[in-house]
């Protein structure tokens, strides 16, 4: 059995449901005094065992879920254990929106500290690009604020590698007016439509204005015993404009068409059913550039379909190419934050789902091979002029990549700050910045 999967299943020594930063501080002090490993749990979405520990203490943030919206300053303050559904609903009541992930039941802290892409990224950049400040409990139990004005070095590190520096108990985000509905939804296509879909995808960035988003890939819909092409459309504007932009896809006679106008907050629920709790799961990712080669996509389709047909109860798995416009993302210099994945390219996400423990290692191997194939044949390795980002999104790749792979030229500064703020490496479950092995 994979070590990471085993760690995810092993029981902790204690789970402490904290209700204040002071309680977090007390738990951290107790654990460090007695050399007890710590893990921090938000919404328990991680598949890399970063929110669990074998025999240690899990700090459960579920009670830290308050969200406050200030309509005058257009800011949203969320506690670290709040979910993005909590944030979306609170902001929507005042006709505002915050850049958040495309799945809304995950925690605010976990997503934001690792970077954060969402449907509004094309307009406003990453989640961390809209993070104004945060409050964090450090390894020695101190409760500190971090922003551009206060502890700016910690603020730099927190935006991209924050899980390695402490427990974020409160985060303040910039919010934006969002009074209009958006156009979105899922389309399912038969596999023979793949060339036409790839043609549209390859022209996406030349047509995009930043108001659009497009996911596409391979999936097995519920109650359907065959692989299909899933696309998810997003347009922040009128239905007329949206249908004109996506007309080449809408005219392909999709087998299923669930697109319509909807409130923005509903858009962030569409991916929820693709990653239900339960069973055994593994998330990984890589990057891709345009244009995509149809031959590669046909191979990936065959690979995915073979896995679906060969192994039992794996039909909740999916492979998705995520086109979220990067123009606002790359306006921020790569070294302005610890997030090192900025460039003229896009993310690939895969989630493999299964139930039989005896195929754990096989699922890991198959997923890693698929990500390697995409990275080598479609990623920035073939087009280095597309930016100096690492090409790896830390919230996706889990423990498939080293700290050097994830943080590139930013790693030495991160390690230096780690020695300042967490010299005994208490917070190392997410991505160990020193790549120590056997983290419990």
UniProtKB/TrEMBL annotation:
SUPFAM superfamilies: FAD-binding/transporter-associated domain-like. Residues 8-178 form the FAD-binding PCMH-type domain. Its cofactor is FAD. One of its GO terms (molecular function) is FAD binding. Transmembrane segments: none annotated. Keywords: FAD, Flavoprotein, Oxidoreductase. PROSITE patterns: FAD_PCMH (PS51387). PANTHER family: BINDING OXIDOREDUCTASE, PUTATIVE (AFU_ORTHOLOGUE AFUA_1G17690)-RELATED, FAD-BINDING PCMH-TYPE DOMAIN-CONTAINING PROTEIN. Belongs to the oxygen-dependent FAD-linked oxidoreductase family. This is FAD-binding PCMH-type domain-containing protein. It comes from Talaromyces pinophilus.
């Amino acid at each position: 059995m994979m070590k990471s999967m085993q760690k995810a299943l092993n029981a902790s020594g204690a789970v402490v449901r904290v209700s204040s930063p002071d309680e977090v501080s007390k738990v951290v002090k107790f654990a460090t005094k007695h050399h007890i490993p710590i893990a921090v749990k938000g919404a328990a979405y991680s598949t890399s065992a970063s929110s669990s520990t074998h025999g240690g203490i899990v700090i459960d943030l579920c009670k830290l879920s308050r969200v406050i919206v200030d309509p005058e300053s257009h800011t949203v303050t969320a506690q670290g254990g709040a979910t993005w559904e909590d944030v979306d609903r609170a902001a929507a009541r005042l006709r505002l929106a915050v850049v958040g992930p495309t799945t809304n039941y995950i925690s605010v802290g976990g997503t934001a500290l690792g970077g954060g892409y969402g449907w509004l990224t094309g307009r406003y950049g990453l989640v961390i690009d809209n993070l104004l400040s945060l409050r964090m409990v450090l390894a020695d139990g101190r409760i500190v604020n971090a922003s551009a004005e206060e502890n700016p070095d910690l603020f730099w590190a927190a935006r991209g590698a924050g899980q390695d520096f402490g427990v974020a108990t409160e985060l303040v985000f910039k919010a934006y007016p969002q009074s209009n509905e958006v156009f979105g939804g899922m389309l399912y296509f038969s596999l023979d439509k793949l060339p036409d879909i790839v043609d549209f995808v390859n022209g996406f960035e030349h047509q995009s204005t930043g108001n659009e988003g497009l996911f596409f890939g391979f999936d097995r819909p519920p109650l359907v015993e065959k692989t299909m092409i899933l696309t998810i459309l997003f347009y922040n504007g009128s239905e007329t404009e949206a249908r004109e932009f996506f007309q080449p896809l809408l005219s392909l006679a999709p087998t299923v068409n669930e697109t319509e106008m909807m409130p923005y907050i509903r858009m962030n629920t569409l991916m929820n059913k693709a990653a239900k709790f339960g069973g055994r799961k593994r998330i990984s990712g890589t990057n891709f550039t345009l244009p995509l080669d149809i031959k590669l996509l046909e191979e990936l389709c065959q690979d995915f379909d073979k896995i679906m047909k060969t192994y039992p109860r794996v039909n909740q798995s999916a492979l998705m190419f995520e086109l979220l416009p990067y123009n606002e993302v790359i306006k921020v210099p790569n070294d302005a934050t610890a997030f090192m994945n900025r460039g003229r390219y896009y993310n690939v996400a895969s989630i493999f789902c299964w139930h039989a423990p005896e195929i754990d290692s096989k699922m890991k191997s198959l997923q890693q091979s698929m990500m390697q194939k995409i990275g080598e044949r479609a990623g920035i390795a073939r087009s280095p002029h597309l930016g100096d980002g690492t090409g790896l999104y830390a919230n996706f790749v889990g423990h498939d990549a080293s700290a050097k792979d994830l943080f590139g030229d930013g790693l030495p500064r991160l390690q230096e700050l780690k020695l300042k703020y967490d010299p005994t490496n208490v917070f190392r479950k997410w991505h160990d910045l020193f790549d120590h092995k056997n983290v419990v």
